[in-house]
Amino acid sequence: MKAWWRNVAVLLVLLTIGQTGQIGQHVHAHEMGTSALLLHETKQGSGQLVFKRTLAADGKVPPIDFQFQPACELRDINTEWEDNLEVIQRGSFHCNAPLKQHNVLATGFTRLAPDLIVLATPLNTQRIHTVLTPKETSLGLGSHANTTAPLEYLSIGIEHIVFGWDHVLFVTGLYLLWKRRKQTVPQLVGQFTLFTVGHSLTLAMLVLGLIAVPTRAIEAWIALSVFWLAWELIRPAPASKAGWSHLLLIAAFGLLHGSGFALSMEERGFPEDALLFTLLLFNLGIEIGQLWIVTVLATAFALLEKAHYPTWTRLAQYALTLLVGGAALYWTVERIHGYV
């Protein structure tokens, strides 16, 4: 490599490391902050409330807020932090009429805080489970069932993969590893199929309540799976092509990432009256998002190769590898430290 290109490469490394620090500092499992409101009416017109907000990628508490219509009095509101990542407000509400005669109005939506999960149990009324968004900012707490439309879980699945940076970097690393080993398209499809089967299996089992997993341990192992891909990308290429052990490892990592998808949906949940259908749509959304990531990567590299820029192609591969490895190392240390 010529001296000029060497200097460019060094500069790119430094910039990538700097950006990795920024990503690691603000991004944990997902870019978007989660907000949830839980209402439980214990006697007519009054009960307990819990309002949770998780830090978004900008490191700030989502500005989402809510109010009752007609207005209700909130009392004894206590605020606490959990792991410096989630602010939780607990207290009670007191209304002049039964909860089912009120509406909940949500405000303060942003790109990093696009919705508010609402779980409400008014007296003598069906349990309400829905999501408020900028397009649907109010919710009636009446006797009719209020649930998120099943088709919305398709877009929710896409959001979870596209805005989940650890999952994005895993998919990116898997693609780069396939490219580095000069494997065939069927081999790429086969690897992603194994990953899909793995995360679909644990996602379904966790949502159906068949298994339970420790949240912090899973987050740490997901970070380690991304770090493993980075290691595979920088170590000397093996003499033989990827064998069964490589494929089994990808399937195992799929199981881990499926646990991450399920844990991130724990508060939002799935409607019990259409559980399998919404679970299928959510998983399909994940696959669409995954396919979109691979398509963007493949298109970008195809354009570079078609333009006969081999040096820029290599630099792009090196930069992405550094990004995958740097972010994964930060997440691994951070999550293991938080776990122990």
Report on the architecture of this protein.
By secondary structure, the chain is an alpha+beta fold. The strands form 2 sheets. A 6-stranded mixed sheet has the order 4-5-2-1-7-8, with no helix packed on it. Strands 3-6-9 form a 3-stranded antiparallel sheet, with no helix packed on it. The protein folds into 2 domains: 3-30 and 153-339, no CATH class; 35-147, no CATH class. The protein has helices spanning 3-26, 152-162, 165-180, 185-207, 215-234, 244-264, 275-306, 310-339; strands at residues 35-43, 46-54, 65-69, 73-82, 86-94, 103-107, 116-121, 128-132, 138-140. The protein is elongated and about 70 Å long. Helix 3 packs parallel to helix 5, helix 3 packs across helix 8 (310-339) and helix 5 packs antiparallel against helix 8. Keywords: Membrane, Transmembrane, Transmembrane helix. InterPro entries: Put_HupE_UreJ (IPR032809). The chain crosses the membrane at residues 153-177, 189-212, 218-234, 246-263, 275-303, 315-333. This is HupE / UreJ protein.
Structure characteristics:
single chain; alpha+beta; 2 domains; 8 helices; transmembrane helix; HupE / UreJ protein
